[in-house]
Amino acid sequence: MYEIILKKRNGGELDNSEIEYWINGCVDGSIPEYQSAALLMAIFFRGLNFRETTELTKTMENSGKVADLSEITGVKIDKHSTGGVGDKTTLILAPLVASTGISVAKMSGRGLGHTGGTIDKLTSIPGFSAEMTQQAFISQIKAIGLVIAAQSGNFVPADKMLYSLRDVTATVDNLSLIASSIMSKKLASGADAIVLDVKAGKGAFMKDLAAAKELASLMVGIGNKLKRRTVALITAMDQPIGMSVGNGLEVIEAIEILNDGGPEDLKELCFALGGEMLVLSGRTESYAEAESLLKNNIANGSAKSLFKKMIDAQRGDSRVVDNPDLIPMAGKRLAVKSDNAGYVIDCDAMKIGRGAMLLGAGREKKDSIIDLEAGIVLHKKTGDRVSSGETLATIHYNDSKMLDTAIDLIRQAFKVNVSKVGKTPIILGKIDS
Ligand code: URA
Q1: Residue bearing the CA closest to ligand 1, atom 1
Q2: Do 260 and 254 touch, CB atoms closer than 8 A?
Q3: For ligand 1, what atom is nearest to the CA of residue 166?
Q4: What is the architecture of the domain spanning 77-321?
Q5: Which residue has the least CA distance to atom 5 on ligand 1?
């Protein structure tokens, strides 16, 4: 291990066998954390080239139990977002795309920091269980063509170890380490085709468009090299997606879309990602055909009915889809009002996400307990007109411990100015090869 650290420290290129030696030693405990930490820092400064990054991804993928979906006929598709605020697209897209006849087999994570996780959101449906065996996972796809499950204990253990080391050694924000971490989990989930939603902006990992494009190109390159059809959309994360942030609140908003309502930006994002999923999987030839199929399956209720079936199959109360009031809500509400009149020129996703986390909707640390009922409902977003004293956002909370700090963050998130700014686009680019 000393030789491997020295080689990378001096700017050398690691052989496949050296990468395998490191990852296997991490997982079996034979390599001490201080040596892995040193190598991570050497990688941070010296980088990994495409071959090294692809090899690292493949070795990490195989460090634990890999899902074998070969029993399921047809294309299995997955989507992944690099993490956003108010991003409930999976709750909508999974049943919507599956309702067109393609299997959607998804293993999702829990939220961390200011970004939410799909499993936490689904857990706000009374009774819903995301824990299941590999056999139950496969049986459910065979039965209804749709499953969203939590990643099990032995799922890509190398990533669990490396991510916690990166977290405490200031080595998270390296493109090769991010790409291998995300793609190893996508590959281990067993799908044949992957649509990536790479977020760019204030509330994202990648704050600027150029960095988001670089990350997207690297992940698409790795996916295609490892024989999974992969494309990425780069999408805006300067302000939250839709109008609600917080687990139960986001499920309610997702249900609104499945009931043919809901905010326009969320709808646009879902149709763009859904279109990529249908074209990539070969379900439709064109994006226009995909969009009309997706719109039709919302209007005729088939996406909604599949969402109910999935909730039933995973022991949740599917009556929430017709009666969202059955989702438990926080006991207390507080309106944050605008001090002046004008137009909203900023609604900072990072500040809103951190505000929601402080109210209990997100995890500060991996083992924090979250409040599924807490969150923030936005009444205004960038480009909207606001009068003095009008409500910008409503806070939903049970615990008032961090309420004042959350209010401050929400106040800081909104900037109101006399001159209007236009609505900002949500789709910023696409990487497909
Ligand atoms: N998400 C991941 O899963 N891994 C990273 O390294 C960053 C974001």
Answers
A1: 182
A2: no
A3: 6
A4: 3-Layer(aba) Sandwich (3.40)
A5: 178
